Amino acid sequence: MASIRRTHSPVYLDRQYENGAAPFSPSSTSSPSQKTSTNKHNSSDPKTSRRGPWRRPFFQFLAFFLIGFLLGLTPYGQIDDNTTDRFNFELKPPIIEQSLQKREESLQKREEVTLDVDGVRLTKEEEEMDVVPRKLIIVVTPTYNRAMQGYYLNRVAQTLRLVEPPVLWIVVEGNAASFETSEVLRKTGVMYRHLVCKRNTTRVKDRGVHQRNTALEHIELHRLDGVVYFADDDNVYELELFQRLREIRRFGTWPVAMLAPSKNKAILEGPVCNGSQVIGWHTNEKSKRLRRFHVDMSGFAFNSTILWDPNRWRRPFSHPTRQLDTVKEGFQETTFIEQVVADESDMEGVPPSCSRILNWHLHLDALDVPYPQGWVVQKNLEALITLK
């Protein structure tokens, strides 16, 4: 039988095969034994096949990580390396460091002012001025149980709240401290001290004498340094008055406008001044020859060191400075002032020329009418007109 043998067509030699396969040829076909030998040869080095793909990216990642870590530790400011302490580093941004240096230089620098006077060269160094603290104002207010007490205390408190600190308000009551007064003082927002006068004031016409003496004893005992002012609760005060008190060195006085007891005219009582020098007094004819100093109780103030440091002011009296209850009513002011100053040369007119009225003394009390307990009316008021 004749055999037919087909030769390979040359057309198939140029055909491309998928997946990179070689064209069919006798040599391309291998036996299973050849495939097994080839697989064994390829898997003979497993280490080379495992570390080949990931080794290079790993080292690249490690290199970039180290570079970023070192850049993060590098400071962007300036490092001050002191030769005395090599391990003491202080990091400062350049802008902040320059501002701190300029500030230190401005504080240490002293400005020099040069003047030429008649060919003589004068140099003045301007030192940094120290801030002088404000004087303490010690306001003494005697008070007692009456219908208008709450209104008066709140009115004085609202005025003192507007005064620049420091201000100390000493409120003195007789016999015992009332709950109503304590409540008013706690709500004012003013620094205060609530005192009680233990003296029996039932037989004294002016109960405020012993109450003021209680405050003076407290000031002397605690050596309070400031300007003492007797401010009765029924007076009306200008805010400028308390600002002027801090200008007093030893003893200051000013005119006071008063409503006469008859309430039909006003009386002006106080000093007549030439600048800050006291040269006379405003007064009425009846008391002109009897009183030495014609001043109202709320028309003067004095330095508190007069009470506990008499050697500083060379006072002639060795006994404590107190108001007297043995003199007639209306003479407590002049007898007290005589213990503080010798004459008008030791006084200061406030304000200069004493040209302004800074407080008013009014007599508007309803006598023998107490306030309700706790400021609460227990019974309803009787209605005079019924509502329809």
Automatic annotation (TrEMBL):
<keyword id="KW-0328">Glycosyltransferase</keyword>
<dbReference type="InterPro" id="IPR005027">
    <property type="entry name" value="Glyco_trans_43"/>
</dbReference>
<comment type="function">
    <text>Involved in the synthesis of glucuronoxylan hemicellulose in secondary cell walls.</text>
</comment>
<dbReference type="Pfam" id="PF03360">
    <property type="entry name" value="Glyco_transf_43"/>
</dbReference>
<feature type="site" description="Interaction with galactose moiety of substrate glycoprotein">
    <location>
        <position position="269"/>
    </location>
</feature>
<feature type="active site" description="Proton donor/acceptor">
    <location>
        <position position="333"/>
    </location>
</feature>
<feature type="binding site">
    <location>
        <position position="234"/>
    </location>
    <ligand>
        <name>Mn(2+)</name>
    </ligand>
</feature>
<keyword id="KW-0808">Transferase</keyword>
<keyword id="KW-0325">Glycoprotein</keyword>
<feature type="compositionally biased region" description="Low complexity">
    <location>
        <begin position="23"/>
        <end position="37"/>
    </location>
</feature>
<feature type="transmembrane region" description="Helical">
    <location>
        <begin position="58"/>
        <end position="77"/>
    </location>
</feature>
<keyword id="KW-0472">Membrane</keyword>
<keyword id="KW-0479">Metal-binding</keyword>
<comment type="similarity">
    <text>Belongs to the glycosyltransferase 43 family.</text>
</comment>
<dbReference type="InterPro" id="IPR029044">
    <property type="entry name" value="Nucleotide-diphossugar_trans"/>
</dbReference>
<keyword id="KW-0464">Manganese</keyword>
<dbReference type="GO" id="GO:0000139">
    <property type="term" value="C:Golgi membrane"/>
</dbReference>
<dbReference type="GO" id="GO:0071555">
    <property type="term" value="P:cell wall organization"/>
</dbReference>
<protein>
    <recommendedName>
        <fullName>Glycosyltransferases</fullName>
        <ecNumber>2.4.-.-</ecNumber>
    </recommendedName>
</protein>
<keyword id="KW-0961">Cell wall biogenesis/degradation</keyword>
<dbReference type="GO" id="GO:0016757">
    <property type="term" value="F:glycosyltransferase activity"/>
</dbReference>
<keyword id="KW-0812">Transmembrane</keyword>
<keyword id="KW-0333">Golgi apparatus</keyword>
<keyword id="KW-1133">Transmembrane helix</keyword>
<keyword id="KW-0735">Signal-anchor</keyword>
<feature type="region of interest" description="Disordered">
    <location>
        <begin position="1"/>
        <end position="52"/>
    </location>
</feature>
